[in-house]
């Protein structure tokens, strides 16, 4: 990792506030957290004014708890970034933590060839709370979104999550803790940056666009006909068939054990084969937080491969879901989707 001599004095940042704990306050009437006016967030973080950046904001109306996030919100975010792309050097998205890894994964696939940072952040404690983590998260996210190298190029032109002093690639993130400040982990890829006294960037793994002058492509067509089958001891044929062969499902992510293993029972494999024959796209992703699928190690994994199940490598479930929404939303049949799943499109898998 290197501490960069960053040039960012004249950067302009668009802060997009979608909701989440970071902007909530206790409503004494209902004794629950409710969102409050965005202008107060900037009042709560006067430190931001010390940067010489231009910071504009855009607030979602209505604000949402991220448990209510839908693919239509991702389309809204991508459309906004597309519209405002030339006007800003970077984008910071304030978002609830619960589904932040899904949203960051989705935006990574929906934006292709980014030349500017899109940084998600939020907090575990509301920004007005005395021990809030929101201030630090927001300040670091803004600084990273504004950071440029000596040539004036963004240092991190990727969709990322900045949380608890660590910057991780959005499509590698998983929320792992509901109350610790280190809410997100990227088990299969080291952080892209760490914020200490300096912000240290891991430039060896930060992805750069093939051209700095080409405009990114913004993809807004998503096909959400994807289900997730999480294996567990005691799972029944009924459950497996309902999920794998559901009439409205085009693809199923099978969350398998360990290195991609599943029960070897005949009824299970028959259900998988039936789904495959019906034209369902089946993707193997491990339930383990770290490591990869390898269907060549055990007989149970081999049978899945023979039944037509595709390898999800070391993908998170969040990223696999977003990648499938994106690939299914593009023109092309199952072969094109399978081909896309095999490829590392946005740094989401290591092969
Ligand atoms: N429920 C909140 C949300 O995801 C939690 C948070 O922001 O941390 O919107």
Structure description:
There is one protein chain. This protein is 27% helix and 21% strand. It is of the alpha/beta class and 351 residues long. The protein folds into two domains: 217 residues, Rossmann fold, CATH 3.40.50; 117 residues, 3-Layer(aba) Sandwich (Rossmann fold), CATH 3.40.50.40. The strands form five sheets. Strands 1-14-13-10-9-8-6-2-5 form a nine-stranded mixed β-sheet, sandwiched between helices. A four-stranded parallel β-sheet has the order 16-17-18-19, with helices on both faces. A hairpin with a 3-residue loop joins strand 13 and strand 14. The longest helix has 14 residues. The mean pLDDT is 93.
Largest sheet: 9 strands, mixed
Extended strand count? 19
CATH second-level architecture of the largest domain: 3-Layer(aba) Sandwich
* Portion of residues within helices: 25-40%
* Structure ligands: aspartic acid
In CATH, what is the class of the largest domain?
A: Alpha Beta
What is the N-to-C succession of helices and strands?
A: EEEEHEHEHEEHEEEEEEEEHEHEHEHH
The poorly predicted ranges are: none
Terminal CA distance reads 23 Å
Average pLDDT level = 93
Number of helices: 9
Query: Helix/strand-derived class?
Result: alpha/beta
CATH topological fold name of the largest domain: Rossmann fold
Strand order of the largest sheet: 1-14-13-10-9-8-6-2-5
CATH homology superfamily of the largest domain: L-asparaginase, N-terminal domain
Global Rg? 21 Å
Shape: globular
Strand coverage percent: 15-25%
Overall tally of structural domains = 2
